[in-house]
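[job 0412] stage=fold_complex status=start
inputs:
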Amino acid sequence: MRLSRYFLPVLKETPSEAQIVSHRLMLRAGMIKQASAGIYSWLPLGYKVLRNIERIVHEEQVRAGHIPLLMPTLQSADLWKESGRYDAYGPEMLRIRDRHDRDMLYGPTNEEMITDIFRSHVSSYKDLPLTLYHIQWKFRDEVRPRFGVMRGREFLMKDGYTFDLTKEDALHAYNRHLVSYLRTYERMGLQAIPMRADSGPIGGDDTHEFLVLAETGESEVFYDSEITGLKFGDREIDYDNVEQCRSVLEEFTSRYARTDETHDEALFNEIPEDRRRVARGIEVGQIFYFGTKYSEPMGATVQGPDGKPVPVHMGSHGIGVSRLLGAIIEASHDDRGIIWPEGVTPFHVGIVNLKSGDPEADAACAALHESFTALGLDPLYDDTSERAGAKFATMDLIGLPWRITVGPRGLKNGVVELTSRRTGESEEMPPEQAVARIA
Ligand code: ATP
Ligand code: MG
Ligand code: MG
Ligand code: MG
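[job 0412] stage=fold_complex status=done
writing structure:
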């Protein structure tokens, strides 16, 4: 992509309405524009990152054997009246009346709708286990939308729903989700710690939230510092292997890690003092096992092996897809701008032409652009006539992992300059070598 043909409305000034760094940087980098409180347009750069995050989430869900579908954003109130949550949910639910005076709502979550799909089409235990998920916009009329996409009113969520015959099977589904989430967040360059949490309006007994540690996080968290040393890494996992998934869960949840809602001071004080940590975190996901809370009132039963109907055991599992952009930036930036992890970066590399209009510099940049494209990589080529300083500032702000600087002086010696955004280190080398380094 040539910058001269792109739409990247970067801001020079720091927007005064943004209180935290990720919100400021997303506005300055031209990634989002507020449409109304807690509702955003995703400008091209932000949209690219959002899609990358979504792709990683999809890939890891499919790897775990979960099946994508898509449910609508608008729901009929009838299902929610059946489950009893229409009244219980409160003012966070945006209620709408259509022209025929039917009560509708903009879905804040989809337990009822998925349970309805399930009961309409599944009748035998032989069709279990089943995990269906979607990535869809949600609406919650938050009292205080703030921090940009971190606490929006309209936001993108992955929500998955598990259906099993027994509690034991449902707990395997829970463990499988925990494992798939660990992989998902690590691929985005994040450490998200599973912490024992409270189930809130979703209900249920077993639940963990995934938290990214950050000073600007809205949750207070308490944990054993040993937990930050745990990495999922690239270990092989068989998602059907009950023991293997359970052992990962045990490894990642045996140390003390809780949000303030479930914090237990006495238990916390059993950790050696030098390992006790009190900090803040951003909730980027949550998994729930809630048994028959919805299947019972809504009649989601299957015929068991003995021919008798049994309500299915369910769980629901969410990832805050749009919130993750903010969380990633909170975890990865410096005073010049964003530093994208390779897995989610909007472009793989920025090419800066120091002298647009110079035939040799133009040709060298065009050749680099072509080489990357041929390799399936996505370069952003700054072919504008801005000053070098401004070009560098924009590249630093938008946080691409690599920058290649091309100018007539270097080209005379056959070299370009390759700079790592993360370390700030630069090195001169022939263009082909720079391509090979990034590819
Ligand atoms: P929070 O405690 O932050 O209000 P929640 O516990 O109400 O979140 P869940 O019902 O667990 O949210 O939804 C799953 C995920 O969706 C959350 O872990 C979070 O990452 C994301 N999410 C929830 N509310 C918002 C929001 N208002 N804006 C952006 N993302 C959100
Ligand atoms: Mg909430
Ligand atoms: Mg929460
Ligand atoms: Mg939650």
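[job 0412] summary: The two ends are 17 Å apart (CA to CA).
[job 0412] exit 0
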